[in-house]
Design brief:
heterotrimer, A mainly alpha (168), B alpha/beta (937), C mainly alpha (444), A: 168 residues, C: mainly alpha, 0% strand
Chain lengths: 168, 937, 444
């Protein structure tokens, strides 16, 4: 009985949102809203995450990027003060990442974009989030759901289930 | 296991953005536990993007920069891979002929020195840490006085260099200080004679006679020589245009290992043999003074050289006596091979510089005579590398002011009042010339990690008293426009430079005399052959763990150098490997452990320099014995000598990675004679299977993989066993060094190893690089309980570290024993700067996991992703494994068997193609071409 | 049945056997023995802590010899276990009455041996925290164990074996716990045994069910005797290593296991019967029968050695031949010849009846065979690994202090458990013995 309890406990813990960080929204330096920018204004993800289609790392917007618009609009709102400060003092913004992969997973954004995998299919529909939070559990099973049915994305590569595709 | 994400040390140049290591450097300190631990810190690390990013900067992308590496003062063009401004890997620069895109082990390992925590980090005065400010405060007044006195009593010691800028600066300095003197000191060979240096054309040479020369490893142009020489060894589409190499040497060298005919001689026997050969070439066969084997060898050489005339080549190692080298010059002249296989031109290195006041001997004298009172030693480590170190140290102590400027606080640094840190060559601006004369640009890859200055900056400061940027000094020396300059930097090679100017003018030759001498076998005294350590050279790389742990050719020794003796002597004198002898030359004596190596001249002992460092931090300390004490001063005494020896009765443990060099009827090496090339029977791959072979056209037969099928081919005919591949693999794949003790326990971690077997009853030695065979029917995969090693659709036998639980069953079942296990946590300490060298594309393995050669799968993935992003197929040769890229002999070919035009497929169709242990039916993807030998019949 | 047991009455069976537990005779001897073995157990503890802090590198293992002491000990302990199940299950089904006096004890031995054995597969892992990846469970990675690997078979074989042995042993104990409960003076002792006996009433129905259950369990246990060590044998047979890759391993390992097990029974039973004066129960006849089994299995093992050499020679395969020659003449020849002496030559003494009935000799032989069987596994594992296919990667194994500490430590664990067992649990199955004493007719 206790054994069963322990097993169930472990299972419950590792699937609890506390562990998987579903709905986890850390404090950000600026109250940035994906809903507004990506949702309402329909700004392309790549405008800010500029290296997503060129490199493994999607990249975060440089202060410069924010100010390419906000040097014109809402320049002096309180909300934007940290951004302006960052430029004035030449001090980078300290964003908090909501999604992270363990160090032994070698994920490459660019190839997924090139293969037509939408951002939302892993990150969920962030365009409806006022505050960025983790929407989907990113475990290996989740990766495999696509890699096992790559043909659904029109990808006919037989190496997608090789371990070395992600682990090396 | 700990979470090792954030391990920047103060040594690291401040990163452009301090993010979690996974994203920033994509540097994977991988332990599966990490996945769990990471969850413990609830608030994730901050990601800090640029405020204003540099143009065209892509986070996490790697970039290559061209620069040059100094090798005994000669330049070697290299390309350096950097990640976010962090150099991680060195490749050869194809634009430089002396490299041709390949590298040697030392070049590969030199990246580690950049991050070596033991490199001296600050000026040191009398053993206490000071600052550059302190030094200039202390120095400048003195410098003023020196200038007033026109530099009277000031001496500078520098290693001979090819750097135009440095030589220019020395010139300016001696102009500014006419009364001052500068000395040159090198512990190793001089490659010039009477202002000229010889360069060889092995591609053109049909018959080569090498006398005590290791031109395939121990030479500034060794990479080019290896490439050209190897071209003449390769079987190509069944055809073979083999050269023939005759070697006369006293003990195995990498070159001797490639010999078709090898004569083992004590140096004292060189003379009669050479005399007989030259007589023979002059048509007077007189073998009276020769023994059986000597006669036979001489006859063959004479016949062959007579046959080929102009395409023959005689060369002697720079360590050989003046008369032996003269002999080769005369012989080449006699063969009319000058200008065809031998080209002599103006010397590139400044050894023979007119302004130079001499070498160490002169300096010592001057110091003792108080003619030199202030001495600055730049780069060199004379206290260690001088034959009479103690004597020089005392002389040095007499100087009223002594400054040592070097990368390590070494023996000399200790002996001087001031020690100043020199920057690593990857941190400095400069310029160098290759042995072939090519002008090479040296640009820094990273800001100095340890506040060092470059020799150029130092020299400029000493001259002008003003600190200047290395860049301005170097740039100032070239009056080319900015565009050309940038082009040069970009290429690493100055366009239009290179090619030896025909010097022709050569000093008058000594008469053809060779000091006679006969081999004496009286016990208690022994002929000494002194030579540079293959990887530590004169000991300057003693602190480099990769090089220390690189098994030495023929002895397979690591972490120690030992005194080579012949089996005959060992038997006669009851010596065994590890026994410690006391050698005495003049009044100096050294205790050295013995290693018994077959193919060593009887009555000879071979001592390699570079061991027994007295003052070196970290891995450098201790290892081996100091052979410098066995040296004499004169040019010949530096390399040859005679020592009295006695037993100490003690014996010390030497670690040899490969202990068994007999093949024990396993036939790992297939060797064939060039003459039989036509009648070779190709070895069929025994495709034994319990399943019926599917009829052609059936779905089973059609189900062969449509995508890539990676495979490797290693040509044993051209492999010299230089171990560049091993070092390259270590640099690429983050494989740890484990130290002497662990090596002794059989736990070295090299993913590719170079086996050596005696063939033809020990008269030949065949090297065999053994990476993972990537078996199609891999025994390891069957037995892993968790599926941590599995087969990929492209035929790779993949090792998944983060799935491995460490049962080690796979290794037990691997017939090639290429798997390596992390018995301990072999990673560098968490705060060590060495982590900055790690390749971010490869997991850093944790304790308790198995690892092995992956065919550089990270490179495969990278190339594949690039090609898929551009929607184009992978091109053959676009993707090269680290070992392949490094190999100067181009003996390793890697590619895709599905590509009908791939080089690897073409090479695998050769008649001499065979698989290692094919009878086990493992169907290895890594296969070999048989070793060709070309004995004269 | 030896005639001496005839004179026993049910009374003395209960009296003397449960007396060992309830009256706790010779406390000094027990305490000394227990303390000694407990100290050794602590050594094991230290060894394990050090192992987990530093890693398996503290042992002498390397490449090529990636397995050595840990696996040797594992196979050795598992082997020892076998005698227990063999005696209690197979002999029970064969109505070998003489087993009655020793089965309880040997079952306990089995259990403790399996406990010791079970440690090693965990300890020898590079990353023991992930041992559970060998179990099939629905993980977040969407992966399963690699079922072709014998190591996975081991997991099932050994765990099943452990469980069944435990059940078998415990079920056998139920009526005896009841006896102790009824005879115990002190209240809490009675309580404890009461709980352990699961309210055994001794009613006819209880006995009926009990015996059914016992037979069923015996039936279940029987195939395990064969299966477990066959699978352990396959750990080696499946590999292609010369010296391992041999089809004879499964049966030959089973034979060896029983051989070793019986030897262990002798080495344990002889001192115990002396200590607690159980000569009337564990009679010379018992010892003699065990000696015979010992000799027979000894010959099975000897045949195994012979056939290994023969097949190697017959195959004409250079690797196989070298492996065998290297065993006998290579750097480890000492342990090989020691093994031959212990396992093949020494037991031959038992041809003579006098020797079979000479207790000290039996004890000595028992010890010798235990050593010999340990050496056998060492020879198979280390000597095959240290020189396999490519001479370039041949190596040597040198055991470190921690290798020995871990091995000796498990012996400590084993003895500690044995001591606790004789102290708190009737070492002889009273219930069964009572029946035999009651109806001597069945004896013939």
């Amino acid at each position: 009985m206790s054994v069963a309890g322990a097993i169930w406990g472990t299972y419950a813990f590792y699937h609890s949102p506390w562990w998987t960080r579903i709905g986890f929204a850390p404090d950000q330096p600026v109250l940035f809203s994906h809903r507004h920018h990506a949702g309402e204004l329909r700004i392309d993800c790549r405008y800010c995450h500029s290296s997503v289609d060129r490199a493994a790392f999607a990249g975060l917007p440089a202060t410069q990027t924010c100010l390419s618009c906000h040097s014109q609009i809402f320049t002096d709102t309180a909300m934007l003060r940290p951004v302006v400060a960052s430029l004035r003092e030449n001090r980078p913004m300290a964003w908090r990442s909501v999604t992270r992969l363990p160090n032994f997973v070698f994920f490459d954004h660019s190839i997924h974009i090139a293969r037509g995998v939408a951002c939302a299919s892993c990150h969920g529909d962030v365009a409806h989030l006022a505050l960025e939070e983790k929407l989907q559990k990113l475990d290996m099973r989740m990766c495999l759901t696509c890699h096992r049915h790559a043909s659904a994305y029109g990808v006919t590569a037989d190496h997608l289930l090789n371990c070395s595709t992600c682990h090396r | 296991m700990t979470d090792r994400r954030d391990e920047f040390s103060p040594d690291a140049s401040s990163p452009p953005l301090e993010m979690e290591r996974r994203e920033f450097l994509r540097l994977a300190g991988a332990t599966a536990a990490l996945a769990g631990l990471a969850g413990c810190s609830r608030q994730p690390k901050a990601l800090r993007p640029y405020v204003v990013p540099p143009d065209g900067w892509i986070p996490g992308a790697k970039t290559f920069y061209a620069t040059a590496m100094p090798w005994e003062g000669f330049g070697r063009g290299i390309l350096v891979e950097t990640h976010e401004g962090r150099p991680t890997k060195i490749e050869g620069n194809p634009r430089h002929r002396d490299s041709g895109g390949s590298t040697d082990a030392i070049t590969q390992a030199s990246i580690r020195d950049l991050y070596d925590p033991d490199r001296s980090a600050a000026p040191v005065r009398q053993g206490t840490v000071a600052s550059w400010a302190d030094f200039s405060q202390d120095w400048l007044p003195r410098w003023e006085r020196l200038r007033a006195a026109q530099g009277d009593g000031w001496g500078i010691v520098i290693e001979p260099t090819t750097s135009p800028t440095l030589r220019r600066l020395i010139g300016e300095w001696s102009k500014a200080f006419p009364k001052a003197r500068w000395y040159q000191h090198t512990a190793l060979a001089r490659y010039d004679r009477a202002g000229t240096q010889e360069d060889y054309r092995f591609a053109a040479a049909d018959v080569v006679l090498a006398i005590g020369s290791d031109f395939l490893l121990n030479h500034p142009a060794a990479l080019r020589y290896t490439r050209e020489f190897a071209q003449r060894r390769k079987i190509d589409q069944g055809r073979l245009n083999a050269n023939r190499l005759y070697v006369i040497e006293s003990a195995w060298t990498v070159t001797g290992g490639m010999a078709d005919e090898r004569l083992v001689l004590a140096p004292s026997r060189f003379e009669p043999v050479l005399r007989a050969i030259s007589d023979g070439l002059n048509g007077r066969d007189d073998f009276a003074s020769l023994g059986e084997t000597e006669r036979d060898f001489a006859a063959k050489v004479i016949a062959d050289l007579r046959r080929v005339r102009g395409t023959g080549l005689c060369l002697a190692g720079p360590e050989q006596s003046a008369s032996v080298r003269t002999w080769t010059e005369l012989a080449n002249r006699l063969l009319a091979s000058e200008g065809r296989t031998v080209i002599s031109g103006a010397a590139m290195r400044g050894d023979g510089d007119a302004g130079c006041a001499g070498g160490l001997a002169e300096l010592t004298a001057a110091l003792n005579a108080v003619q030199v009172r202030q001495v600055c030693i730049l780069g060199a480590n004379p206290v260690y590398t001088s034959p009479n170190g103690s004597e020089f140290r005392e002389a040095l102590a007499k100087a009223e002011y002594s400054v040592h400027f070097g990368q390590y606080l070494d023996e000399t640094g200790e002996g001087c009042q001031w020690h100043l840190p020199e920057s690593h060559y990857l941190e400095a601006w400069g310029d160098l010339r290759g042995y072939d004369g090519t002008l090479l640009m040296q640009q820094p890859l990273i800001e100095p990690l340890r506040q060092g200055k470059s020799a150029i900056e130092m020299m400029h400061w000493l001259t002008t008293g003003l600190a200047a940027e290395g860049y301005d000094i170097v740039r100032g020396g070239y009056s080319v426009d900015e565009e050309t300059w940038r082009e040069w930097l970009n290429a690493g090679v100055a366009s239009g430079s290179g090619g030896l100017s025909r010097g022709g003018a050569r000093g008058p030759h000594a008469l053809f005399d060779i000091e006679s001498g006969t081999a004496k076998h009286e016990s208690g005294s022994i002929e000494l052959v002194i030579r540079a350590e293959p990887y530590l050279r004169d000991g300057r790389y003693a602190n480099n763990a990769w090089l220390q742990e690189l098994p030495r050719p023929f002895t397979s020794l690591v972490w120690d150098n030992a005194l080579w003796v012949s089996p005959e002597m060992a038997q006669r004198e009851k010596l065994a490997t590890g026994d410690v002898l006391r050698l005495t030359v003049k009044n100096r004596s050294v205790e050295a452990p013995v290693v018994v190596v077959n193919g060593t001249a009887d009555g000879c002992a071979i001592a390699e320099l570079g061991g027994g460092r007295r003052r070196a931090d970290g891995s450098g300390k201790g290892g081996g014995f100091d052979a410098f004490a066995l040296r004499g001063e004169s040019e010949t005494e530096r390399w040859l000598g005679r020592a009295a020896w006695e037993r100490t009765g003690r014996s010390m443990p030497l670690v040899q990675i490969q202990t068994e060099m007999e093949t024990e009827d396993r036939h790992p090496i297939w060797q064939f004679a060039a003459a039989d090339t036509e009648h070779l029977q190709p070895r069929e791959d025994p495709a034994i299977s319990l399943f019926p072979t599917p009829p052609p056209g059936s779905p089973a037969a059609a189900s062969a993989p449509v995508h890539h099928r990676w495979a490797m081919l290693i040509d044993l005919s051209s492999c010299t066993g230089c171990s560049a591949c091993v070092a390259a693999c270590q640099a690429e794949n983050n494989t740890p060094s484990v130290g002497k003790d662990q090596c002794g326990r059989g736990r070295h971690m090299h993913w590719i190893r170079v086996d050596r077997y005696w063939t033809d009853g020990g008269t030949r030695s065949a090297p065999q690089p053994v990476p993972c065979m990537q078996c199609e029917k891999a025994p390891c995969e069957l037995v892993c309980p968790v599926g941590a090693t599995v087969h990929s659709s492209e035929g790779l036998n993949e090792m998944v570290y983060n799935r491995c639980v460490g049962t080690r069953y796979c290794s037990n079942n691997c017939p090639y024993k290429v798997r390596r296990f992390n018995f301990f946590d072999f990673r560098a300490p968490r705060e060590s700067p060495l982590h900055l060298q790690e390749n971010p594309a490869v997991t850093v393995r944790a304790r308790g996991v198995m690892e092995k050669c992956s065919y550089c799968v990270q490179r495969i993935d990278e190339a594949r992703i690039a090609s898929e992003r551009e929607h184009r197929p992978l091109r053959d040769g676009e993707l090269r494994t680290a070992c392949q890229q490094a190999c100067p002999a181009e003996a390793i070919v890697f590619g895709d068997l599905s590509d009908p035009n791939s080089a690897v497929l073409r090479r695998k169709r050769e008649r001499t193609h065979y698989a290692l242990l094919a009878e086990l039916n493992t169907h290895p993807r890594t296969t070999y071409l048989a070793r060709m030998v070309n004995p004269s019949v | 049945m030896s005639d001496r047991t005839h004179r026993l009455t049910i009374a003395d069976v209960n009296e003397r056997i449960s007396g060992v537990v309830l009256d706790f005779p010779k406390p000094k001897v027990w305490f000394i023995g227990f303390a000694a073995s407990f100290a050794v157990l602590m050594l094991l503890l230290v060894a394990i802590i050090w192992l987990f802090t530093k890693g398996v590198g503290i042992w002498g293992i390397n490449i090529p010899i990636a397995w050595a002491f840990a696996i040797t000990n594992f196979v050795w302990w598992i082997g020892i276990g076998h005698a227990g199940t063999f005696i209690s299950a197979i002999l029970f089904l064969l109505f070998q009455k003489w087993r009655t006096t020793i089965n309880r004890f040997t079952e306990a031995m089995t259990l403790f041996a399996v406990a010791c054995a079970g440690l090693f597969p965990l300890l020898h892992l590079g990353r023991p925290i992930y041992f559970y990846w060998l179990l099939p469970y629905p993980d977040t990675m969407g992966l399963w164990p690699q079922f072709r690997s014998p190591l996975v078979w081991d997991v099932f074989a050994v765990s099943t074996y452990g469980t069944v042995s435990l059940l078998f042993w415990y079920v056998g104990l139920l009526p005896d716990f009841a006896t102790l409960r009824d005879r115990a003076q002190r209240i809490w002792v009675r309580r404890v045994y009461g709980i352990l006996s699961w309210g055994w009433s001794g009613a006819g129905r209880t006995w009926k069910h009990y015996e059914k259950a016992y037979v069923i369990l015996a039936g279940l246990a029987t195939p395990l005797v064969v299966s477990v060590h066959s699978i352990v044998g396959m750990d080696f047979a499946v590999a292609m290593l010369p010296g391992w890759h041999s089809t004879i391993f499964p049966p030959y390992f089973v034979g060896g296991a029983i051989f070793c097990g019986f030897a262990m029974v002798l080495t344990l039973v002889i001192p115990m019967r002396k200590l607690y004066h159980l000569e009337d129960f564990i009679t010379l006849r018992h010892l003699e029968l065990m000696a015979i089994v010992l000799m027979v299995t000894g010959w099975i093992v000897t045949y195994g050695y012979f056939s290994e050499f023969f097949t190697a020679w017959w195959s004409g395969d250079v690797f196989e031949r070298y492996a065998q020659v290297n065993r006998a003449l290579g750097p480890y020849k000492g342990s090989f010849w020691a093994m031959v002496f212990c396992n093949c030559l020494a037991p031959q003494v038992l041809w003579s009846r006098r020797m079979r009935r000479c207790v000290p000799v039996l004890f000595a032989i028992g010890l010798i065979v235990n050593v010999g069987m340990w050496l056998e596994r060492y020879v198979i594992i280390v000597e095959s690994l240290h020189r396999d296919f490519l001479p370039s990667s041949w190596g040597m194994f040198h055991a470190t202090f921690w290798d020995w500490a871990t091995f000796v430590g498990t012996i400590g664990l084993f003895l500690t458990l044995i001591f606790l067992f004789v102290r708190f649990i009737p070492a002889i199955a009273m219930a069964e013995l009572r029946r035999q004493v009651a109806q001597p007719g069945e004896a013939s």
